[in-house]
Amino acid sequence: MFKNKFFLVFTSVILVAIIIYSFVDSQEKPAELPKSDDNYAKTIQQIRLEKDQAFKEEKESPIEKKAEFKGLHYFEVNPAYKVVATMDMLTSGQNIKINMTGGETEEYEAFANVKFEIDGKKCALKLFKTPEGNLFLPFRDLTTNKETYGAGRYIDLKLEDIKDKTIKIDFNLCYQPYCAYNPTYTCPVPPAENFLNVALKAGERM
To answer: Where are the transmembrane segments (predicted)?
Structure first.
């Protein structure tokens, strides 16, 4: 399903990110959200710094000219792109073939349809489950092929993020696949239904 080389470096980074991010998120209360925006932004910036360091130092990094690497490019952190989505669960074992950037196809287990609002627009995406038991959300939006990678961007989630058939999705954490930085990597292309008709200026950009 997933290419091992594709996720080798980022897995270690995202695990640290999830621990830091979950701690800050657990401290937030809805009424206090405006006061916590500064801490929230600092947490996202720390996650980004750790990923930049991994890309610059790790052997399996997709960055070829590491000595010249000065960090990835990101949109500004915006709490408005942190949403709570409702979930329509799908029948277990429902697999969908997804095109890869290398021309082949791979099967992904469709886990749920998630619905939410961004910039006042109703949005829907299909959420997939990985063999490791994690959740994978690939998508495209109106920034694709302009400000962000043409094959789309991704968000990694966890089963334990689900509460009462809802799940928090923070698009400030969305990232571009390794193939955006190195053509020798192969990555899944979001299905046509995972297109957002909004310019989602959050997370990694070109």
So the answer is: 6-24
Q: Cα–Cα distance between 157 and 75 in angstroms, integer?
A: 20
Instruction: Tell me the per-residue pLDDT of 96-127, one tens digit each, with 9 for 90 and over.
Output: 999 999 999 999 999 999 999 999 999 999 99
Pair of tokens at residue 27: 């401290």
Tokens 């292309």 belong to: 189
Query: Do residues 109 and 94 touch, judged by C-beta distance below 8 A?
Result: yes
Give kind and range of the element (H or E) at residue 38.
Answer: helix 33-57
Do the bridges between strand 105-118 and strand 82-89 make them parallel or antiparallel, or are there none, so unpaired? antiparallel
**Both structure tokens of 169:** 């999705």
| Calpha distance 121→41 (Å, rounded) | 24
For residue 162, the SS3 value is: strand
Contact status, residue 174 vs residue 144, Cβ threshold 8 Å: no
For the record, the structure tokens of 10 come out as 């980022």
Calpha distance 16→144 (Å, rounded): 28
Cα angle for residues 69, 73, 79 (degrees, 5° grid): 145
Whether this model's pTM surpasses 0.85 = no
Label residue 9 exposed, middle or buried (CB < 10 Å: 0-12, 13-18, 19+): buried
